[in-house]
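Support reply, case 0932

Customer input (verbatim):
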Amino acid sequence: MTTQNENEYINVTANAVGYVSKIIIRKEGRKETLKIRMNLLSGRKTAIKYIPAEFFVNGAKPIDLAHALNDRLTEDSKTLISFMGNVYPSYYVSQAQGYEGQIVATFAGSLNFIKSIKEDGKFTYRDESLHNGGAN
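Our regenerated output:
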């Protein structure tokens, strides 16, 4: 059995951590769409694997943080973001040299809440609601 949108079968809410590689801002008239492209960390601390992913940014606070981060992001930045969001499997056909035409599996979804941002080893943002009132 097939449906028009097979992504609906696997869509989980996840706590995730990833290195930001690019922030994409698209404007159509008054509407603006933000995406964060990152490499999610997976596996054990001694054997980390990186999984490419792309997330739509939702909510006023995450959008403000993504804009501010975009102003500081450089090619050499090591920006680690901890977040909660919806994740689902995705795929695309590679256009990269040497891999043309190969199907690449990845994750996509929506980034709904940013817990922390660490830039070059230093925290530049921590959501205070997670660190106050005994919520640690």
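We compared this against your earlier run and they match. Two observations from our side: DSSP finds one helix and six strands in the chain. The first helix runs from residue 60 to 72. Please reopen the case if you see a mismatch on your end.
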